[in-house]
Design brief:
about 210 residues; alpha+beta; 2 domains; four-stranded antiparallel β-sheet; about 30% helix
Length: about 210
Amino acid sequence: MIINKLAALCKKNGGFLIKDQTTRDNIALGDPCQWIGVNGGMYLLQNMPYLEKANFATLLGYDSEKFKKAEVIHDKDGFWSVDIGDTAEDEKVATLSSIVCEREKYKMGFLLVDDRIEFINLGSLAPFADIEEYMKICARQDEKGQIYFVIKNGLITVGAIWPIVMSGDHVATELEAMARMARAAYRDREAKKAKIVNDAKKEAAKDRREQK
């Protein structure tokens, strides 16, 4: 976990939610794990002592005045109504697309799960950049059948993100336009390569004729 990346998300969002986790995979934990929830994502704080609300100002690099103005909620009792255990029977591995669509407030990518596509804010993955080599993204469904994604470092769940709820078909229209431009660029490159090859063949044939 890259703390300064997580801090940037918290500050951009104007606040964050702290959640204590007392069980994991239905096993009671001797010491609670702590998670930070912010802007459609949740992040496990690993290898850290238990922190009270005030300690998060230091952890995330807030000065005292800005921390007072931030909306910070420490929920010591409940937890998100999603499964953030290390295993789940229904989870499916998702493939992250490298295509990025620039939207007003974030860079948007998409995850492919079987024949389904879900859009995500790529910024929500920034805190996991240090585990990119071992990171795996898996799709799960909550009790209402809504999809979300858990982030794994190897076999350990270290975070979760929620897809962006899209309204209208503007994204599909944008992607279709990108596809048309990509096909046009490909055809243009292929035509230029073919011209270079044909010109080279003509030049070689001319040289042979002149040598005779």
